[in-house]
Design brief:
The protein is globular and about 120 Å long. The strands form eleven sheets. Strands 7, 10, 11, 14, 15, 18, 19, 22, 25 and 26 form a ten-stranded mixed sheet that branches. Helix content is 40%, strand content 13%.
Length: 1231
Amino acid sequence: MPVKLNGLKIERKFTKSGQDPFQKLNWNQRDVEIRNFDGTVAFSMKGVNLPDNYSQVAANVLSQKYLRKAGVPKKLKKVREKGVPIWLQRSVPDQKALDDLPESEKYGEEVDGRQTFRRLAGTWTYWGWKHGYFGTEEDARAYYDEMCFMLASQRASPNSPQWFNTGLNWAYGIEGPPQGHYFVNPDTEELEKSVNAYEHPQPHACFIQSVSDDLVSEGGIMDLWTREARLFKFGSGTGSNFSRIRGEGEPLSGGGMSSGLMSFLRIGDRAAGAIKSGGTTRRAAKMVCLDMDHPDIEAFINWKMTEEEKVAALVAGSQHLQNHGNEILAAIQAYSGDESRFDQSKNKPLAIAINLALKAYIPDNLIARVLELGQQGYTHIDLDTYDTSWEGEAYSTVSGQNSNNSVRVSNDFMHSVIGEKDWNLYWRTELEDAEEANRTPKPCKTLPANELWDTIARAAWSCADPGLQYDTTINEWHTCSADGPIKGSNPCSEYMFLDDTACNLASLNLVKYYDQETTQFNTEEYIHSIRLWTIALEVSVLMAQFPSVEIAQRSYDYRTLGLGYANIGSLLMRMGIPYDDNRASAICGSLTSLLGGVSYATSAEMASVKGPFPRYDYNKDNMLRVIRNHRRAAYNSTDEEYEELTIKPKGIDPNYCPEYLVTASQKCWDQAIELGEKHGFRNAQSTVIAPTGTIGIVMDCDTTGIEPDFALVKFKTLAGGGMLRIINQSVPMALDRLGYDQLQSKEVVDYIVGSASFEGSPEINSESLQKKGLTSRIISSIESQIGNFTSINHLVTVSSVGSDFCTDKLRVSESQADDWDFDLLSHLGFTSEQITSANDYIFGRLTIEGAPHIKEKDLAVFDCANKCGQYGKRSIAWNAHINIMSAAQPFISGAISKTINMPHESTIEDIKQAYMDSWRGMIKANALYRDSSKLSQPLMSGTVLKVNIDEEENIAEGLMSTEKAIDVMADALPIPDAKPLARKIVTRYIAQRRRLPNKREGYIQKAKIGGHNVYLHTGEYKDGTLGEIFLDMHKEGAAFKALTNAFAIAVSLGLQHGVPLKEFVDAFVFTRFEPNGPVLGNDRIKMSTSILDYIFRDLAVNYLDRSDLAHVMPEDLKPDIVRSEGETETETNLNSRLSPAGSATDGHEIQLTLDEVDPVKADTSSLQTGLSDLSIASAPLVSGEGEGLAFAEAGKFGFEGDPCPECGQFTLVSNGSCLKCISCGSTTGCS
């Protein structure tokens, strides 16, 4: 192949000629899995082959997002093409070989990272080679190898659409019907329409599209939604400035008035929300911009905040509708008179329920509907209820949630705010008419600029939107201002250029160029990488297709690129430099200067080979002026030296930056100007700082773009399902840089992220779990999955233990097993304090604050954008974010996608100040995010908003929801699948509490059932009706002790909320479970089928005069009734330790009032003791020193002195050659 005299020369820095570019890396197969918060699997894939340097998190995301999942032929063949080397020829399915395979084996998915890396690098090299970018075949081969290695070694990554679309045709011959795309043929320079969806891929992530004030014509409003859909389908994002659309109420030329901008924005928002690329993998991304003088600006500013308030209303309102509707039905069902149950004058509970519903603003027609359902016999209704999930029904119902919103503010507006001046809004038609007539436009509305400023700040404080774009600054750095102003941006505000243009992005992973041992940044490899990736992005313009004629033509005319970097926050941490340090700003400035200077120099070098971009000559003066201003910032020039800049940039301060970085950052701009003046530039823009969200994870970046770390441990929810626990990998290296030894470093890291093992865990560990009934096999299985979960509550669940095992061995009911909110650890008897302690040990405290060995002076190095976890107190001040953006912006031809993270405590005044400081810092755009300001946020720092209110305190406020009452009762009922029975009782009555007097009457009754001493204590209202019960078991540690305690609380709540005692009696008398049998100690109840059967028999006898449920009639207790001496003596002896009613002399203590009970803190610790072996519930009453006394006492009553193997009581008597227990009736023999 002849040498092209002016082709690009490609050096090798990472690979060697003739060697596989991947051989320096260690490869292995691994299984990948992404789980949701509740532990369910969202995605899994077996046997994915990736390099060792990929963390499990990076492997998970690469596999889920970027490996092609379908249509990859198992057999391929090369397509011969003149002038293309064999190794670079494209491939197509080998149909003949595929015919020999079973149908299910003909096509598959990418399962090897090398397939994907070659697909990308090969496509770039193929197009670059075909169109004359490389000097020789060896240059092309070097380029291919170097790009393969950089992808595999995580040194760089293109934007997501490249991963999705690039190379599917080149590598696999995948084709598809055209989607209405266009491209400019690089050979003929003519615009053509695509005939195949994949031959020309869509690699561009960022688009800016114009929209005209026309409803259905091409280029108009409805046409924009179609153009956006083409982009969203292939994973790209788009932005538009809608300032040309007429405002609400603006006169129309044909008569009438405009419906306004907002009505159309809502339509576009819903359309965007319905689209995800590939159906599952990526949400639609769009930006909506509006100028500050638009008549609908106020509604636009408040749009997202208002819609989020609607979400809150949907969530709260749906629950209220459900609860109040069922309260009304319950009141109807509870009324005894069928004829008058709907008569509010007679059915007072119904009147109260309706009144409460009306006071809660339940619509009249819905109340009427519920009443009609009640008349038709309905006793319960299930309405749809909503939550604040970011992909839930509530968010999908409202508008404004599928775009980033920004307002364009000019210097004039900012000066009006400072000067407290008025600001004018204009009809769109008036601006056009005034321009045509060469006159000053007349405002349609005038209001104080500070009023708008306040509105912006409040909206941003509430929901993180709108962001600001500083229009004057943007256009003063515009390289092609001769062709018109910049009006809009892409979704993340880093790409800002003319309407109907596109930009493809890529980012370099900065930490890969930092040598931890020498503490030097490898500028040579960094410069080399910048050059090669600038070429990749230029070639991507060459090969791409675009969604409209205008974008295809303008992308060819301007060829804008978006090369950036990621992970500067981690780089600074590894250097041991705090993010808010002056050194951080200087180093950031120098590395950004290298990025911009080398990229523009490469663009000029490509112009020497392929010529400058077509519109360069028309914009030459403006572009060279901008390049000179970039260079001046690198040299930290004085303000007077800059050309045509209102706000001067922040240059690199050499006092805070290593000399080798300063020198390199200046030299590259010298070269860019020299080559640019000689050859021009191939690209109108070349650099941006993108957010690098998903690609940052794939590169194992701890921080995205120019951001500091969000938190040392983060939880990210993925579109399409799944959650990732992302741990900062830079902490050990930073500790090493700061002088901590390996042992100290390990202890610090374990403190942050946890031990990931049960070994050494306090309270909850292998031993304690075995005691609770779990087998060693189950425990080992759970422990092996720790890395896939976020907390111990999500780790130890019914799902992870096994549903059958839980129901068979751990006494978990089927309804509990099906409830994702069921807390198995609490069910097993672990307290919240024990769970928290174990969670901190296994999963970490998520913060470095309080870690062993760490010095106070070093904490700033590890500060993050937010407080880390629930224990963290520190965070980076928001002005540090602005400072570092100001340091980077002078060297970026586009802009910086940066969210200024602010702590939850930030005020509206802080928001105003941050926006003002950003403008003064010559930042082109920013957005603010106050932690937890959105109802649902994908990225969380582990902080928890806690409101600790006791259940009694909650109930005392008045209304208790039906569903809550049902849950409380169902949890307490000692039967499986208790919820239907609980609902039957609770939903018949109004959940309005009638409180007991502080001093109340009642009685205490002791009895013995199946060897268990049972204490029943009642509390009465002044009229003598029952208001509460307390139950206690004498046997400490018995499962029924806690169970009956919790059950009594539930019953008491029911009694005080209007449930008649009769309903409880009907529900629980004759229930059958152990312990049961003869009842000793109660005058009228002599036999029971269960403890509940006994309790409600006793209550029915004493409060309802239900003698039919007693075994002894009142007259039988009169003194004249004849009884045998034996019966009298036996009962007297058995009850000899019972004092008169109301007291106990055996150390038993009775809780006196329900008011003192905190159901949350009620003693349930013994509930789970021995759940896997219920024989513990019938263990001997006494042990140790008291055991001999028990034997002696048993002998006095004629018993054998041995405990019953069934109930544990010392009441065995001879029964032939065996023994029989007179307490429970069991025998030691076969009878």
